[in-house]
Predict the structure.
Amino acid sequence: MRSARVNRLRVLLRASLTGALRGAPLGLSLVLGLAPSSALAQAQTQAPPRAASAPSAAGPLSYSTKEFAALAARFSDAGGYFDTDNLISNEPSLLHPLTTLDSLGVRGGVYLGVGPDQNFNYIAQVVPQVSFIADIRRDNMLLVLLFKALFHAASDRQEFLALWLGKPVPPAPRRRDWPVDSLVAWAERTPSSTAGRTQAHQRVTALVRGFGIPLSAKDLETIARFHGEFMQQGTALRFTTIGRPPQRTYPTLGQLLRERDKAGRQRSYLASDSLFGIVQDMHRRNVIIPLVGDLAGPTVLPRLAPWLRQERLAISVLYTSNVEDYLLRYGTFRDFVKSVRALPRQNNAVIIRSWFGGPGTHPSQVSGYFTTQLTERIETFATDPAVDRVSSYRQLVMRVR
């Protein structure tokens, strides 16, 4: 019996991984909910392997490389196109929800977010059992793999920043007690070097090849291009939209790393050695899993919900940024609502949104910030009949104070 189960597991793993995450075609306009590629569809006709056992007294949850890649395939689809590179966030208010998470006692559970490394700020505070970072762009999966490689390679925050931005890695022992202001200042005054860039690129490339997710030559070129942008622009990098210059209201990478919560505390994932260590440990245990897919589509949330129930896990944080704005524009918001309502969730689980209306456009706006982060209990969102009548993102966010 045990031999038969092992053989079945091998077959299912192979089916889940074969071609499931190869380069997704990019369209010429935003596409939400593209049909899966034939390779992915074939892989998904068979039930993927069960995840590793839930955490117990023996220790926290962890996945093997094969399990990590299989879960990434299981909850991903072909993805689509969006007109930004999203190398960093354009939300200067990104840390403001941390104060609310503290007051509600949101901890553990399952984290699900979109976009690049801003997710690590929430993950470092909530310390979920497992995290999924989903995005309609395959490029975002590749970006998360770049960060995963950096977390695997670095032994501390300064080495992480050096490898990220192509700076010479200072000799050990390095200071672990630096405040983030000092760490960012070091990066700003330290020039990038050819040797530093070469070393960082070689280490990252070697690591991303070993994470189990099939990568094409084009994927590796994309990861190298992203890394090159970080190394070229350093802490001055801003969020950019394809074909348009960066907006002056968008924060630089250095500003994002120095940001504060509503209580004035610096709490980014690089703000302390302990916060950095939480995210690093989760990456090394393969429990931060990148997905490709539309949050309103038939794959990410609909497949995640039964798996969560099977594994006796529940959502604690759903970070959507302003994705719902696009779902409302393209007529798929109702599908998203239906999927969220089906997710098992903690009693105090929250959804975190971003509002880009500008100063004075929302009652929760913090003075001096162009963006507003809004936190709502998922239970409230899921049971509010007014949600079914929402027709615009403004209408959706104005429900939240």
Notes: The two ends are 56 Å apart (CA to CA). The chain has one domain: 61-397. The beta strands are 110-113, 130-135, 288-292, 315-321, 345-355, 372-377.
